[in-house]
Amino acid sequence: MSDRPAARRRLLALYALCLGVLMIVLDTTIVTVALPTIQSDLEFSRAGLTWVLDAYLLTFGGFLLLGGRLGDLYGQRRLFLAGLCVFTLASLACGLARTQPELIVARAVQGLGGAVVAAVSLSLVMSLFVEPAERAMAMGVYGFIGAAGGSIGELLGGVLTQGLGWHSVFLVNIPIGIAVYALCAALLPREAESEASRTHDAAGAIAITAALMLAVYAVVNANEIGWVSVRTLSLLGLAAALLLAFVIIESHVKEPLAPLRLFLLRNVAGANSVGVLWAAGLFAWFVISALYLQRVAHYDPLHVGLAFLPADLIMAAFSAGLSARMVMRFGIRGPLIGGLLLAAAGLALFARAPLGGTFTWDVLPGMVLLGLGGGMAFNPLLLAAMSDVGSHESGLASGLVNTSFMMGGALGLAAVASLADVRTSALQRAGFGPLAALNGGYHLAFGLGALLSALAALLAALVLSPVQQTAETLSVPHGPPDRAPE
After folding, report:
1. Nearest CA among 156, 194, 230, 176 for reference residue 79
2. For 396-435, what is each residue's pLDDT tens digit?
3. Per-residue pLDDT tens for 46-84?
């Protein structure tokens, strides 16, 4: 058939786009296994180490929605390639970093490039595949990459860190980024110049990102300078003022980054609030468990990655279709609440992990429960966020909950890590040995993560309204967020 070469070209473009998205999604988790090695090499404090993740999460979450808007105005293909260049060059800077500021700044730039790529990639997929059957196939591939990709980051991070050192978890992006750029530049069709008014909410993006970065900075440094010191309180006050400025900007700007009217919808507001709480608990698991396995259980990076494998496989199975079938049968609330409670139980098991624990009894059960919980809950959370809006705004609602998830993870991780550091210091002053004190701090972090996940389940039960999903709604991918059509 004459259309066969064009279909093959579209399929190759889909695979190239998914490879780029996979690289972005992986970078959220691949660094967790390398954190202890980075801490030792660059001499990070226990609390300061969270900036290696938070710098990425904050700029990623802060610029997701703006990246989608810029794609609408200046062209999805152009923005995708530009974001890919920024991400790849920032990955090189991360891999070459020799000081704490160099790594943190490079991670922040990485997050900015990743946000742009994630924000416009889905729109590119939708423009390539317009026939319903082809689009469903493409959405399935894209959704699987987005949902399952992050779960294999720990394993890949362990393999790379063990074999090549922590720099390799960043440098591996260089050949991938170059290959994706070359393929997408050749395969993606060029777009006509947009005639839309080129207005965008840069002020809103700057305000919300600056507010959260100041809040995280204040929390991370509060242990050293004092929680009620003038500096800490001033930073938190400035963060609150910037957050208020963001709300004012969004209520007056012509093209708001996050239309405030959406937060008046019950399920949109509820899903975003649940996402903030759950992300704080989930990132406590990602980071603190990797630190526990290396610092307390004395696993090498490869075995840390292998320890995450059960959770990775379970999450991949859910993203491949189990989650959708559960939602079809039980609706949104049941799987979401059940998944959050299972995640809370997994974190609670980690909160009692002893100094001389074994993998079978002290690590595997928690990993299995967290894999089940994460696999069950993630898609229902995104579906709940989109259930109160029309199809023309589903991308925007998905983007909002993904942004809340990233921001909740960044701020929650900073708070949990700081409180764990306080607990460790208190136990050392009380006469506990260094390892026992460190484990005591990790226990508090896991306990707080369990509490946050349980509170997320309670909030979901109290706030979210029951919604039964159809096969059509479940065909929408629920990986990295996209922008709603204008």
Report:
1. 194
2. 676 777 778 888 888 888 888 888 888 998 999 998 988 9
3. 778 888 888 888 888 778 777 777 777 788 888 999 999
What the block records as the tokens of 65 is 């929605």
User: Does residue 385 contact residue 402 with C-beta atoms inside 8 Å?
Assistant: no
In angstroms, the CA 456 to CA 353 distance is 23
Q: Classify residue 313 by burial, with Cβ atoms within 10 Å: 0-12, 13-18, 19+.
A: middle
Closest to 87 in 3D by CA, of 58, 118, 66? 118
pLDDT the model gives residue 395: 61
**For residue 212, which amino acid is it?**
L
Which residue shows structure tokens 């970078």?
27
Q: Pinpoint the alpha helices (H) of 129-201.
A: 132-149, 153-164, 168-171, 173-187
Q: How far apart are CA 108 and CA 114, in angstroms?
A: 10
The C-alpha atoms of residue 84 and residue 88 are separated, in whole angstroms, by 6
Smallest Cα–Cα separation from 255: which of 442, 73, 6? 73
pLDDT at 330: 84
Instruction: Provide the CB-side half-sphere exposure for 158 (13 A, CA).
Output: 19
Whole-number Å distance between alpha carbons of 77 and 145: 20
The answer to whether residue 438 scores a pLDDT higher than 50 is yes
Two tokens, residue 476: 């929408």
Q: Residue 186 phi/psi, 5° resolution? A: -85, -35
Terminus-to-terminus CA distance in the chain, angstroms?
35
Nearest to 146 by CA among 393, 389, 335, 323: 323
What's the burial of 255, exposed, middle or buried (CB within 10 Å: 0-12/13-18/19+)?
middle
DSSP alpha helices (H): ranges in 292-433?
A: 301-307, 309-317, 323-330, 333-350, 364-386, 394-429
For 110-144, the pLDDT digits (tens) are: 999 998 888 788 778 877 877 767 766 776 677 66
Q: What share of the chain is helix, strand, coil (3-state, %, to 5)?
A: 80, 0, 20
Domains of the chain: 1-194 (1.20.1250.20), 201-254 (no CATH), 259-477 (1.20.1250.20)
Kindly indicate the confidence band of residue 27, based on its pLDDT and cuts at 50, 70 and 90: confident
* Identity of the amino acid at 129: F
pTM (global) more than 0.85? no
- Other beta carbons within 10 Å of 251: 11
Q: Token pair of 264, please?
A: 């008046």
The closest of 255, 153, 157 to 203, measured between CA atoms, is 255
Place of tokens 């009620």: 228
